[in-house]
Amino acid sequence: MRLSRSLAPVTVAVALVLSLPYDAMPYARVGDAKPPAPSLFGAACRTAVRGSHVVAYCHNPYVDTDRVRLHIECARWWDIDTDSAPVDTGPALTVRLTGRCWKEVRSVWISHQKEH
After folding, report:
1. How confident is the model at residue 1 (pLDDT cuts 50, 70, 90)?
2. Burial of 89 (0-12, 13-18, 19+ CB in 10 A)
3. Mean pLDDT, to the nearest integer, of 80-86?
4. Which of 47, 54, 97, 109 could potentially form a cystine with 70 if both were Cys, beta carbons 3.0 to 4.6 Å apart?
5. C-alpha span between 99 and 116 (Å, rounded)
6. Is the CB of residue 70 less than 8 Å from the CB of residue 110?
């Protein structure tokens, strides 16, 4: 008997909540706080290989300075791979990076570093 008496108020409360119109239901308020936009960073780079010579142009359209480096891997085992000196690419600037192998070029890539 005691069990049914303790369940009676709970049952009535649940029935009342379920019978409320949708607009009367409380809801969590969501603030206008938007998540911060991701920080845009990184110069857009184009590379061109002509024979054993490599040329790269990097343009930085963003506010933060991007420190770019050209990396060249040569095809021959005896040919020395090269990494250019880092070049700071400021906002709205385009820089030119060059390098070469003695013979064929195997691969070329650009690394980016955010300046603090």
Report:
1. very low
2. buried
3. 95
4. 97
5. 27
6. yes
